[in-house]
Design a protein that fits this description.
The chain is mainly α. The protein has a single domain (about 5-160), classed as Up-down Bundle (Ferritin). It is built from five helices and no strands. It has helices at about 5-35, 35-65, 85-110, 115-145, 150-160. Helix 2 packs parallel to helix 5 (about 150-160) and helix 3 runs antiparallel to helix 4. One fe (ii) ion (FE2) binds near residues 17, 20, 50 and 53. The site of one fe (ii) ion has 4 residues, from helix 1 and helix 2.
Length: about 170
Amino acid sequence: MISKKLLKALSDQLNAEFYSSYLYLAMSASIDNEGFKGFANWLYVQAQEERTHATHMYEYIVDRGAVPEFKAIEGVKGDFSTPLKIFERVLKHEENVTKSLNAIASLALEEKDHATYEFIMWYVNEQVEEEDTADEYLTRLKLSEGNISAIYNLDTILAARTFTDPFGGAAA
Ligand SMILES: [Fe+2]
Ligand SMILES: [Fe+2]
């Protein structure tokens, strides 16, 4: 049986993953309308990936014999009018996600819930790549400031991203 404290933390994280999905969708919509179809594509795929994180978390909680708490998903606010503004926010957002995942890992260890520790460590490790990617694109965008052809070059690269379910399932 999963502890109440851990169930709350996992439910909050499930909610946060849906918020991440929501945030990336909002970014995608804004930047699509600014003419950056490649950035829009990358962010849309990112939103799909975040949704699988949420549903995977849902499955884990239910498998442990518990029911997650379904709280309201926070609304999205922000200025997503340029790729640079977006990636500044993406990096900050992913750094915050890493913090909350680390806190869950610590709590799981504290409660000697090793199954949850193992489960959440997949996400913790995934964050290394998430932060690295966001940091790489942010650096490139900073270097490309004012150089529209360099930004469009990156847009073309990001247009190639396709979605694959990280858990290999059909739930997407
Ligand atoms: Fe996520
Ligand atoms: Fe993420």
